[in-house]
Design a protein that fits this description.
about 425 residues; alpha/beta; Aminopeptidase; Aminopeptidase i, Domain 2; nine-stranded mixed beta sheet; five-stranded mixed beta sheet; 20 strands; globular
Length: about 425
């Protein structure tokens, strides 16, 4: 059986994932946990002068949090944990009501690299946020989460498509509108259902960011329950580990050597090019402002950044037992053997030898294993926010991640011990050399 400390962490991870069906919910879940650890939310329009202790800023599906106790020198270097809150899925279009052949359906758009066959014949709910008309011409944002089997993308019966198993053929563009009722498309039907779930009136809704999620709860798999299976492991495993490490750093008795930072960005799965993505100045603006709020100068900001280091934590590929030839023959990570350090000399990952050394040292202090990962030369390599953060801030960065199977699937798999290993390593990384 999985050792108790790791089981406890995995249990908590499953609760976090279940409460976080969208990036906006993931941010809300993270903020709630940080508040319990004594952090407080700062808004961009607030006066941050003299702010110390644990703080965080929320912008949509992104969260930046840091801990700088009173008396921390303004030039103290940052130790940054970089993650992302979004996952590939199906997102509801602005005009959603559609249908065909007597079925009521909703129109969706593909978000990110979705293996669409994994979304077929699953019971789907709706989650995201609504933009509501507020008092005085203002707009308010409200989360909505419907964990009910409302929708389904039905697969064509094999009797009507004998080629269905020939490469798992699927028309990516035409046949992904989920069904949710019988009858002609009724304008406003979905809006009324979603507004009611958010305790709002349909005419209050001015816009939305809504998506579908598999309502099957996360859980364990295997003869000894040694695997975690869930939606959105990529990348809520890392977000949860980062929140855990940051909260632990805020309760540590030692004087901080670094200022621990959690940067949970949105839109990584589609290139990070948004005001909440890693390509934006969001992290740079917030961290520089935090230095100035503690009385620091531009020189202090430059010193804090020059001594900074970032661990970009995103899911990685475990060796697939049915497709071992797709992996590098000498780099075959396995679940429950520790997080991987991801290397690509063409800078799809930002790792170099100094990054490996920093991460390996943190693993030693945490008493946790790690594994190297390199893609097969014949296969395209993925990427993460690591190179973006390194290029944007000029900060040394190492790319790491928990190895798993079925990445980007509607239901992914990883080892039950590895999320706990990652949290312990990140905790050691942000608190000491």
């Amino acid at each position: 059986m999985t050792p108790v400390p790791h089981r406890s962490h995995a249990d908590d991870l499953l609760s976090f994932i279940r409460a976080s069906p969208s990036p906006y919910h993931a941010v809300a879940s993270a903020a709630q946990r940080l508040e319990k650890a004594g952090f407080r939310e700062l808004r961009g329009t607030d006066d941050w002068t003299g702010t110390t202790g644990g703080s965080f800023v929320v912008r949509g599906g992104a969260l930046i949090a840091w801990y700088a106790p009173e008396g921390t020198p303004s030039h103290t270097p940052f130790r940054i944990i970089g993650t992302h809150t979004d996952s590939p899925n199906l997102r509801i279009k602005p005009t959603p009501d559609t249908g065909s052949a007597g079925w009521r359906q909703i129109a969706v758009e593909i978000y990110g690299g979705v293996p669409l066959n994994t979304w077929l014949d699953r019971d789907l709910g709706i989650s995201g946020r609504l933009a509501l008309r507020g008092p005085g011409g203002r707009t308010d944002s409200r989360l909505v989460q419907i964990d009910e089997p409302l929708l389904r993308v039905p697969q064509l019966a094999i009797h009507l498509d004998r080629s269905v198993n020939d490469g798992l053929a699927l028309d990516r563009q035409r046949h992904i509108a989920p069904v949710w009722s019988l009858g002609a498309a009724e304008e406003g039907a979905l809006l009324r259902r979603v507004a009611a779930a958010a305790e709002a009136e349909p005419d209050e809704v001015l816009g939305w960011d809504l998506m579908l999620h598999d309502i099957q709860p996360p859980g364990y798999l295997g003869a000894e329950r040694e695997f975690v299976v869930a939606s959105r492991l990529d990348n809520l495993v890392s977000v949860h580990a980062g929140v855990t490490a940051l909260a632990a750093a805020a309760t540590a008795a030692e004087e901080p050597v670094y200022i621990p930072v959690l940067a949970a960005f949105d839109h990584e799965e589609v290139g990070s090019g948004s005001d909440t993505g890693a390509q934006s100045p969001l992290l740079e603006n917030i961290l520089s402002r935090s230095v100035k709020a503690r009385g620091g100068s531009s020189e202090d900001w430059s010193r804090a950044l020059a001594g900074a280091f970032c661990v970009s934590a995103d899911m990685a590929h475990a060796v697939h037992p049915n497709y071992a030839e797709r992996h590098d023959p000498d780099h075959r990570p396995l679940p429950n053997s520790g997080p991987t350090v991801k290397v690509n000399v063409n800078q799809r990952y930002a790792t170099d030898s100094t990054g490996i050394a920093v991460f390996a040292s943190a693993c030693e202090r945490a008493g946790a294993p790690w594994q190297p990962f390199v893609s097969n030369n014949a296969m395209p390599c993925g990427t993460s926010i690591g190179p973006l953060t390194a290029a944007r801030l000029g900060v040394q960065t190492v790319d790491v991640g928990v190895p798993g199977l079925s990445m980007h699937s509607a239901r992914e798999l990883c080892g039950a011990q590895d999320p706990g290993h990652l949290a312990a390593i990140l905790g050691a990384f942000v608190t000491s050399d």
